[in-house]
Known about the structure:
CATH superfamily of the largest domain: Glycosidases
Number of strands: 20
Structural class: alpha/beta
Largest sheet: 9 strands, mixed
Low-confidence stretches: 1-31
Strand content: 5-15%
Radius of gyration: 27 Å
CATH class of the largest domain: Alpha Beta
Number of domains: 3
Number of helices: 28
Distance between the termini: 51 Å
Shape: globular
Helix content: 40-55%
Bound molecules: acetamide
Mean pLDDT: 93
Amino acid sequence: MLKPGIARILSLLVVAGCILPAGGRLSAQTETLPVMPLPAHVVAGQGQFVIDGSFNLALHGYTEPRLERARTRFLMRLSRETGIPLWREAQFNQAHFIVETGGASKPVQQLGEDESYHLEISSAQVRLTAPNPLGVLHGLQTFLQLVRITPQGFSVPAVTIDDQPRFPWRGLMIDSSRHFMPIPTIERTLDGMEAAKLNVLHWHISDDQGFRAESLKFPLLQKDGSDGLYYTQDQIGEVINYARDRGIRVVPEFDMPCHTQSWLVGYPKLAAGPGPYHIATHMGVHDAAMDPTKESTYKFIDTFIGEMAELFPDTYFHIGGDECNGKEWNSNPQIQSYMHAHGIASNAALQAYFTARVQKLVARHHKIMEGWDEVLQPGTPKDVVIQSWRGQASLAEAARQGNRGILSTGYYIDLNQPAGEHYLVDPLGGDAASLTPEQKKLVLGGEATMWAEYVSPENIDSRIWPRTLAIAERLWSPQDVRDVGSMYKRLAIVAQKLESCGIDPRAETDAMLQRMSGNGDPEALKVLAAVVEPPEGYTRNDHTNFNTFTPLNRLVDAVPPESVTGREFQQLAEAIASGQASQQQWQQARRWLTLWRDNDARLQPLLSKSSITEELIPVSHNLKEVAVIGLQALDALENHGSIAADQRERDLKTVQAAAKQQATLLDAVAPSVELLVQATKSE
Ligand code: ACM
């Protein structure tokens, strides 16, 4: 869970970012390749490679079962998209797509392995070469993104791509504690990560609200620390194998010494407080903490890490370390006297003592420790990896201290920020920009974080995708690839491709709207849903008595964090307000405003039918009012007319009021209508 202040920090970072002018290193043609992440180097060729019934792909050079499975997955995707045959005989077609793999990658995928590939597409053939299977996996995904419908049929443009990632650590964190995410959800997300060339699943698997991994050494962790929803060790192994098949490492996080309330239900002797403990149901920072002064705590952690180190083969092991409020330490006399006797002057020093002890245990089990930026202290061992979440400064501070780090500040996808804001946050931006070249090498990359306070298996796709593609591009593509307009254009196309591999945020939204309305085709509700957004940050707690049992079934849960229609309407409004709009843009703006104006009459009878939709009555009404004002503003602007001063004043007040949060939703068009009114003259 995050402190509310972070949203402010994030917006400052975004303001600090800038959009480079077009005409950088990449050609205009490259910019329009509908690929995300944009490859490091692209040379356009002549013609196109047509995909038809004669298609086949052959693996040459080094091969292994993982590559065979990648080939099968690739052919199935391609078959679904294009209709190429998959029957046995088709496999005897002469292959015009040759994959040449140099050799094996490491048995357990390592940070910094070569992930490069070379993809050469001509009208006659395709050659994908890579030093090892990791590059092959990436190259296959690039090819799939290039498939398009043309008058000649399905085809891929002729192009030569030399590609490799900018950063070796490109992650997505999934919080399975606040809301349990079933295995198919995790695996589907791994499919999306493969498409986005992300290579680390950071699995936040325990927190106050649930302990979700099976421990055989300490079975009360999952028995008492969860509601029965946890991953068995077999399931965890399955996820790790599934991830490896897609070039993705799995780094577990067992957050300690705080965020541990669920551990303490079954093992209260670990606790600093008197207990008894229950699984937390509310969100936010809890007081529950381990007792860092007892030897028995370290004995427990040693055995536990030993067990989990075997289960999770990755070299890195995340121990959390965030958000200790120290209350249980302050009120425990034994802890206070220990601190006094050992010259431990503060809770931060006590946590540093704990971290240092745990780091030795992690190292004893042949792992490298990772922690949130709270674990960075003057004496933190140099091999500890710091995950920066409270600001970019800690990433730079870590590097100056000689510690490697990854950036998550700016990549908190639970905050409902637009993709364009995440996109401009760079791991080597902010304070890190002033690091020396040697220090910059310590910045390993970044991770999007999918905290799950307000996320369920039902809406997680719409929370992660498509925005995480923008972060994936930031972490993969050259630093000067920063054109937000180009990113959004490509995002729309690549998001559709994600749908063809099973990730379908729009279907999630539609299903939820159908259920909310009890209507198989809730057209009017869809019109409203397309132009509202969840507010940024963590404002929901202010509005409801929210806990882990609260169903996530409201419109705020169903709509994506960023309204595509809202953004497109904003572009229209900007063009109109600045006098640059085409006839088509004027017409589109009018069409939309008319639709929104008339939608209220169709929607209102439906809204009062249930308590879930009842809260939308004023939201729909406001949209109508805003649309009416927008149409009047268009009339005035089109006729070079003006609006009476007092009317204009009232209109501005109305749209500003409509822009305020209502039913935990924001009207995504009200600010643009305000822009239109501002552009009118007053008489
Ligand atoms: C965090 O958001 N508490 C790491």
